Each structure stands twice: as C-alpha cells, then as structure tokens.
Amino acid sequence: MSTVGFIGLGAMGGPMARNLLRAGHSLNFCSRRREVVEEFEALGGRHAATPAEAARVSEFIITIVTADAEVGEIALGKNGVIEAAAPGKLFVDMSTIGPQTVRTIAAALRAAGMGMLDAPVSGGPGGAAAATLAIMAGGEAADFERCRPIFQAVGKHLFHVGPLGAGQTIKLVNQLIGGGIMALVGEGFALAAAAGADLKAMTEVIKKSSGNSTLFEARAEKFVLADDYPPGFTVELMRKDLALALDLAQALQVPLPVSAAAFQLYTAAMHQGRRGDDFAAVAKVCESAAGVKIAAPRQS
Amino acid sequence: MSTVGFIGLGAMGGPMARNLLRAGHSLNFCSRRREVVEEFEALGGRHAATPAEAARVSEFIITIVTADAEVGEIALGKNGVIEAAAPGKLFVDMSTIGPQTVRTIAAALRAAGMGMLDAPVSGGPGGAAAATLAIMAGGEAADFERCRPIFQAVGKHLFHVGPLGAGQTIKLVNQLIGGGIMALVGEGFALAAAAGADLKAMTEVIKKSSGNSTLFEARAEKFVLADDYPPGFTVELMRKDLALALDLAQALQVPLPVSAAAFQLYTAAMHQGRRGDDFAAVAKVCESAAGVKIAAPRQS
Fold first, then answer.
1. pLDDT tens, position by position, A93-131
2. Which residues 124-153 in chain B show a CB within 8 A of chain A?
3. In-domain check, residue A297
4. What is the ipTM for the molecules in this complex?
5. B7 with B145, same domain?
6. Which end of chain B has fewer CB atoms < 10 Å from its terminal CB, N or C?
7. Which candidate, B58, B239, B89, B251, places its Cα nearest to that of B165?
8. Whole-prediction pTM value?
C-alpha cells in the first residue's frame, strides 16, 4: 500500500480519496474546508496544512482541481509540492488542463528531482464514486506502473497513452466530442420540440438508432427530457475543457468549426444562469433560442 | 403472410426485400436493373413493370429510395402507386425524406382512398442485412399494427412515434445527431494527429470514456483510423439528410449552429472526391484542413 498526498477533495476528488482509503492506502490530504477535514480525518486520513507538507510525507501526490493556474500554484507555488521535491516522489495530476501546462510543470519538477504523470479521468462524479473511471496517463511507463495500484483503487479502465501531456491531449479530444454531442442533442431536442414530436418516443428511438451515445443514454431522458440539471459535471467545467481544446487547436493551427460552434452554446449557457448546472443544460440554450419548450411533449 | 410491393432495391432495400421473402411474404418488386430483376425472380419475387402495377397486386407498397422527389414520383407520378389506389391498400415509405413531403403525398393518396405510413429506418446496410433495423413510424396506429409482421421481418426495434411525418422528424433528429457526431470525431482525430497523439490508444480510451457513441464504436477504428471508407451510408446521403434537417429547422425558425457547421464539412467532403465514401470520410475534410495525416499514429 502507498502513501498518497491528495489535493482537491471536490466532486471528483472526494469520492476518489474515499476509494483510496477504502483500498488501504495512507492519505495525506489538503483542504481548507472544515467539513472536508473532519470527514477525511474521521475516515483515517491525515490533514496536511500545505501541498508541501502533504508531499513531504507522501510518495505520490495527486491533484484533481479545476484550472491550469491552480495546478501550477499547488505544484510550483509558495508551500507547493516542489518545496518537498525528492527523487522517488511522483506528482500525479488528474485534473483536466492543457498539455503544454503539464510539460511546463513537469520540467520544473524534474529540475528539482521529482517525476510527474498527467492522468486525467473520464466518468464523472458517478464513475468516481463507483471507482469505474477511465484513466488516461501520459509520462514514463515505469511511473505509470508504480501508480497502477493507486489507479486501480479509483478507476476501472487504465491506459498509458504516451509521454507527458498525452493523457491531456486525449482527454481534451474526448471532451471536444462529448461537449459537442450534448450540444447536438440539445439542438435535436429543440428541433423536435418545434416540430411537435413526441420527445419521449424520440428518446427511446434514438437509443436504438445510430445517433445513440454514452452521453445520450446517461442524460437525454434523465436530464434533458426531465428538464432537471443537478450539478454533476457542470456547464462551467465543460466550457473550460472546450476552451482548452480550442486553445490547443489554435496553437496547432487546426480548424474545428463544429466544436467551436458547440463552445459558443456553452458560453451562452453561462450567461443564462446555467453555470453550475450539469452541462446537458446546454439544451436550455437551444430551447430558448428556438422559442420552444423541450420538456413538454406534444404530438405533431 | 402479406403481399408486398417493393420499390428501391438498393443498399438498404435489397437486403430488406430479401428478408421479406425469407419470412414468407409475397414480393412484387420494381427495378430497372437486369441483375436485380434476375436475382429477385430467382428468389421467388414477381417483377412489376411500374409502381402502379406493383400496387395493383399488393396490399402494402414499400418504397425506400433517396430523395423526396423520387418518392413523390413513385407515389403520385405517371404509372405511380396512386393509379392503383384502393381502400385497404397502404403506402409505406421507408426512405428518409422531409415530414412535409410525407404529409403532401399522404393527402393525395388519402383523397384517392389509400392510406400511408412514413417509416424511416436506422441501422444502415448492416442492420438491413441482419434484420436488426430500428423502424420509427408515423401514421395511424391501426395501420402500424397491420404493418407489424412486415416490419418484424426487416427490423428489430419497432416504434410507432405519432401521426404522419413524425417518423421522419425523429429520423432527421437522429441524423442531425449522428452526422454531427462523425464530424466531431473527425475534428477530434485531426486535433490529436496535429498534437502527435497515439491515435490507436486514443480510440481505445474514448471507447471507455464519456465521448463514446454507437458511431464511434462502429467507425472510429474501422474507418477513420484505417483510412478506409468503403461505401455504406455515404457522404452524399448524410449530406442530404442533414440538408433535410436544416430545411425543417429553417421552416420552423430553429437555429442549429452546431449541426449547420457539421453540414458544411459534409458539403466540403463532396468536393474532395468523397461523395460515394462512407460518411465517416468527413474526417478527411478535417484532416486536410488541419494539414495532418490521421492514419499515421505517432507518439507526442
């Protein structure tokens, strides 16, 4: 069993940290929220005041937070992981950030004698709770193997996909496809509502047709048709991930007209009070732009 | 067992007609292609010179062709089905056409004493061969029930989704989502190729992640990664279906920015020699626009 530092006990990190404890790993966690500290101390975790303190007493240091800047601050800032850098310690960032940020942080840590993996995940809070996440890791193969017992405690599908940054590149492509799919579903529901179609019947048909997807199965009926968007993976997070994908595409001179159009809808959703809703709420933008009600099935 | 007139023995209609014969139905088919006539006569079908002649000797008349105008000509044109219209006969169009065209044709047939269902399908030539198609039918419930034994011979998932035209509305939404998904997949592969990602590994990861879909599973590895686009459901057909969806949206004043962007890529694919390729070849437009090779995995 390993000693794991953990920073970012949120919607994803919280259940992941619980699964690490459940699997028998030692947890040195950072949190500024009293209820989180109390919960994880009660579960047997040890509270660390700073990332540096967590790193000092851990072999692996996992971060799963929101933004590039946050990961940079935790890794390289004052009281950051780098202050405790030592050979054999491994920084494992499981956030979704830009691959270039990964390489910048990894270079600084390497200069201080410490390794890094980028290991973003897919599966959302539900997958985190059930320990069924997909994990796509970039970095040295040996580091990936060292992390395998940790990854196995939080995920089900483990992939070493290439060198540093490769995990993030693949994650961003997954988000670009997934974010686009929910936008298409929103457009489809808006069109069908305008045409007076039976939206419940349509949902059943599409589940058995070529337009089906993992996201359609998880969200079309439960969220879009129910007009209920409880916070899970939020509009704000999806918009952030699409922005990272478009930033990467811009740097590499890759035109992405479909994904860019989807991004605009998530941006509009932010301004329509949907920032904290599940990202399927992009359908609400399509609904209001079409002047229809998606959640009110009629016969045409 | 029923007597079925059948017009449109193509990539979809051919295997469907074979399945009807296999199930024991009588087939009166129209075709101008000698090899088709020979094949279906050998299978026990009876060749009819015109749609009117097929309709005269059949209770059900199925069409599955490409365009609105073609269905209109077969139904209402010279030597068309309408010339044999009689109470109890049912015109079943399984093509993908606009819901307004369905209503126009149905009104003319009804005035001549004959009923109609719109019953488009999903599942492609593979689903047609395996008799696993999804069938989404609009029209009278009683007519749908009369057709059930016929539909069961060619499909697996049978849905009565509402009044005339409702089948087509739902089919167009399915196409809008599916066409958009393949465009997103093309963009994702182009971005990943530009970033130097391992595209084979990416394909495996996405299959276990939130970006997965029926189309990704069927086409990402087999077509996009293999750089092989054998004609199945073609670029030309997908572009036609998306045009129908956008026409409907225009009439109903529904903005579809994401789907409209996808449509542009299929239009571009037409001009890049991809008209007759499987519609996953939309990825080739993304590839050439990004100046990359999708089918050449490298490590980044």
1. 999 999 999 999 999 999 999 999 999 999 999 999 999
2. 124, 134, 136
3. no
4. 0.96
5. yes
6. N
7. B251
8. 0.96
